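== Fold encoding ==
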Amino acid sequence: MAHTNRLIAGFDLRSQENNREHRTEEIDRKRLIVRRGQAFSLTVHLSDPLQSGHELALVLKQDKNNDDIVIRQRTSGGSGDKWWLHQQSARNELLLTVYSPARAAVGEYRLAVELMSGNKILERTDFTKMYLLFNPWCKDDAVYLPDESLLKEYIMNENGRIFTGSADWMSGLPWNFGQFEDNVMDICFEILDRFKPARSDPPNDMRQRWDPVYISRAVVAMVNANDDGGVLVGKWQEPYTGGVQPTKWMSSVPILEKWSKSKSGVKYGQCWVFAAVACTVLRCLGIPTRCITNFESAHDTDGNLSIDRVYNIHRQSVNHADSIWNFHCWIESYMQREDLPEGYGGWQVLDPTPQEKSSGMFRCGPCPLKAIKEGDLNVKFDVPFVFAEVNADIINWEIRPDGQRKRLSSNSAKVGRNISTKSPYSNEREDITLQYKYQEGSAKEREVYNKAGRRISGPDGEEESNPANEPGNVQLEIRYAKPVFGTDFDVIFELENLGDKEVSCKLNMMSKAVTYNSVHLGECQNSTVNVVIPAHKVHRETVRLLYTKYASCVSEHNIIRVIGVAEVSGQEKSILEMVNIPLSKPKLSIKVPGWVILNRKITTLISFTNPLPVPLNRGVFTVEGAGLLPTKEIRISGSIAPGQRVSVELSFTPMRAGVREFLVDFDSDRLQDVKGVATLVVRKTSPSYSSMMPNIFG
């Protein structure tokens, strides 16, 4: 940036030093990337000392804002809502310390240095780019989070766990958020620029880019492709022709890169993929964000705070409007809510999965956790929908041939279980259910539910005369051990007679394949038995579910729904119980011998054994890791026989130091989404002592 025959000979952005101070050096060390509300420094080189009456100023431009920001020196300090600078001279160099307001618009700026005499510009350098992000370390920023350990997780950690499975069998899916990977920040700003209000009214958009509520709302709208060319196309059922099966993704980075290159929605995503991509974007922009999983998540389509399941006399479902998802993922971001009364700041629910529209776009939130817990449905944004996801009652109905409806059962404690996020201190699960609602079954929980406007009614708005759920003398429970995909396994139906007399009972036992969001795919096995249960005794029926029966109908989520319906003589209501059984996957083996050193090639060994009784074809390993290597595929030639072990070697050169995660996925024609992860400590240099063991965990 040198200029001949000028007083301003050049200037230095001091990018490496500033980025280190602003915790952005992981993004880039060459470009200037700073956080608002925190000072940064520039060095200006002069050919001669500055004359009396002359001063230096900075000018900032944003492409979509016609008003330049001129930053001038203040000797007594500036106000918190204005840009200002302080100047120190040393011979022919000037150190400019620049102060940005904590409410400055985030985004890309162009910066130049001006030599001024009064209001007259004598010289101006060429413009160069700088970037401004939110600052959760600044107490005046609306995203300020006063806990360094939480910021290390919710801003700085590029690796995470997203919890999937079922409420009874939860597992952490490793995910590479990669918010500091090359080009990700630029793609995040591209997402904001492609937002429809940004294109239709750029000046108004720029005026709102200081506001994390506006930014987060824009991000969750743009992460799905339902409105205006967003990032991800959603699809919840096979076939996934022309795209990637959602369960195959392990990282947000290839999704964002593909969208940026193609300028069209990437195929395909489901809830955890939408949530993970949104988490990447918001962490990169500087808003503390975490992924959340709600097990037994309700999708209440009619807003009556109940999930109405309707069955015919054969116990076949005849109404699919409302549904319970095995799990549903969204995100929370931390921010103050200046648009709401005091007390609603803190963690806010945001959901990019396209389920319902909010202000004309497929998006949800930000919705304060406090409003959800207290049942304050009139608070912005979208509280009724999220409240139902974690609080709705389930009501099971039977519709008879004459059109009469009979209530089978209800459950007020099944929805919204084990609400989970990754612990900021480990890869373990942290249960945050009590941040969303009071203890299930407590008087306070029911009080909040009633406050929210409880309306339990039958289908088509027909009121039910007896809403109480009083258990009869016979109770039904379904038990199972944790099964593995590819094996036969037993499900036990347990009928207990609590009465003083023996009873006769007809027990219908059904199993069907479903997706994680409750789409029915096909029947697996059904059977019916008639039993007599003595007083105060338990009767057990065991059904063995066969791999040969379920393999052809289960989805990529490998979930089998088991339903038991007991019709007891002399008892008016049938007993209905239902469980979703996730089938676990085998494990991959990952070995990394020796120390892992920055910019030094290492070789990994990846192994997999076919656990199925049938051969696997079209096998492929997909590997990636933030700071380690970009996404790479390794294809396996030929078939993998039952019990056969297949191994591949992969060499790569780590690009960034620190604790890194190496992620592996295996897919084939009959078995998909087998995951593996190894944690690597990438050192800047080799250890000086050889007695230590390498820090590698597979």
In short: Residues 271-285 form the longest helix (15 residues). The chain has 13 helices and 42 strands.
